[in-house]
Amino acid sequence: MNQNIDSAIRSHMTEETVACDICSKAFSQKAQLGRHMKTHTGEKSFSCDLCGKTFRQKVNLNGHIKNHTGEKNFRCDVCGKAFSLKPTLNKHMKIHSGEKDFHCDRCGKAFSRKVHLDSHIKIHTGEKSFRCDLCGKAFSRNETLNKHTKIHTGEKSFWCDHCCKTFTSSGQLNHHMRIHTAQKPFGCGVCGTSFSCKRSVETHMKIHTE
């Protein structure tokens, strides 16, 4: 009796699940398998109309578009910084918690994200595999190359919803937004005066050290 039940269950699972031919991972739907296969093929069929960046899944494209529109629904309870994606907020929270799980084998420096460790290691190796086609300058990170390229193209794909001013990076937009929100997350450890950017704090500190 039990053997018949087990046989029926295995038969049902075979009919209802589909497996990847490359890594044997199983899925309950063919659509899920199709999305998974793109991790092996590298296919990125969802493209951003604003900057041309491509993605394997539409959900990733939707999250990316928020970088252009400035939509940020996930806010840090500690410093107030906002993000367009919850996973990005979760990674940011490690800055406040001090959690650093990724360590450099060469110098012992620790990082909260593996991508930061990978970039750091290139300091030791001197590897700069991302080169600008326009001026030949090389960089250790593709992200840095992309920011550099905008110097040549003049591209400003991040805009402010309040005044429509445009910027070349999300960091510049975030800094600008503090003008409208009056947000001042950087405080002086001596007198408590707050500022909208870190550079202003550093300039202010000279008052106390002189």
From TrEMBL:
GO terms for molecular function: DNA-binding transcription factor activity, RNA polymerase II-specific; RNA polymerase II cis-regulatory region sequence-specific DNA binding; zinc ion binding. GO terms for biological process: negative regulation of transcription by RNA polymerase II. It is found in: Nucleus. SMART domains: ZnF_C2H2. Residues 18-45, 46-73, 74-101, 102-129, 130-157, 158-185, 186-210 form the C2H2-type domain. InterPro entries: Znf_C2H2_sf, Znf_C2H2_type. Keywords: DNA-binding, Metal-binding, Nucleus, Repeat, Transcription, Transcription regulation, Zinc, Zinc-finger. Gene3D superfamilies: Classic Zinc Finger. GO terms for cellular component: chromatin; PcG protein complex; transcription regulator complex. Belongs to the krueppel C2H2-type zinc-finger protein family. May be involved in transcriptional regulation. PANTHER family: TRANSCRIPTIONAL REPRESSOR PROTEIN YY, ZINC FINGER PROTEIN 143. This is Si:ch211-271g18.3. It comes from Iconisemion striatum. The gene is SI:CH211-271G18.3.
